[in-house]
Amino acid sequence: MALRTTRVLYNNSLKKWCYNLSGFNKYGLVRDDLLYENEDVKEALRRLPDHVVDERNFRLIRAIQLSLQKTILPKEEWTKFEEDKLYLTPIVKQVKKERAERENWEKEY
């Protein structure tokens, strides 16, 4: 039991360390803000509510502005590992699945 607890703590602390090392949280970004915008991601963004897209655009513009100014946000405004929720990844997975089904359907019929 102690080994399992140590492994969980180690993995969680390692994840936090890697998350903070990546640096995007210092600009107020979340993981899904960094996705490459291919056709699947664009379709997923189209399916999101407008207020979520507006929040994403604000974070991206703020990050660009901070980068140009060569500054970062104050530490209390950084995105925390615990607060970083995947808002776009589930929709992207659904879009990819639908696209694969459509391609399979077109191939067979």
TrEMBL record:
Gene3D superfamilies: Cytochrome b-c1 complex subunit 7 (1.10.1090.10). It holds the Pfam family UCR_14kD. Component of the ubiquinol-cytochrome c oxidoreductase (cytochrome b-c1 complex, complex III, CIII), a multisubunit enzyme composed of 3 respiratory subunits cytochrome b, cytochrome c1 and Rieske protein, 2 core protein subunits, and additional low-molecular weight protein subunits. The complex exists as an obligatory dimer and forms supercomplexes (SCs) in the inner mitochondrial membrane with cytochrome c oxidase (complex IV, CIV). Component of the ubiquinol-cytochrome c oxidoreductase (cytochrome b-c1 complex, complex III, CIII), a multisubunit enzyme composed of 11 subunits. The complex is composed of 3 respiratory subunits cytochrome b, cytochrome c1 and Rieske protein UQCRFS1, 2 core protein subunits UQCRC1/QCR1 and UQCRC2/QCR2, and 6 low-molecular weight protein subunits UQCRH/QCR6, UQCRB/QCR7, UQCRQ/QCR8, UQCR10/QCR9, UQCR11/QCR10 and subunit 9, the cleavage product of Rieske protein UQCRFS1. Its main location: mitochondrion. It is a peripheral membrane protein. Component of the ubiquinol-cytochrome c oxidoreductase, a multisubunit transmembrane complex that is part of the mitochondrial electron transport chain which drives oxidative phosphorylation. Belongs to the UQCRB/QCR7 family. GO terms for cellular component: mitochondrial inner membrane; respiratory chain complex III. It is found in: Mitochondrion inner membrane. GO terms for biological process: mitochondrial electron transport, ubiquinol to cytochrome c. Keywords: Electron transport, Membrane, Mitochondrion, Mitochondrion inner membrane, Respiratory chain, Transport. InterPro entries: QCR7, QCR7_sf. This is Cytochrome b-c1 complex subunit 7.
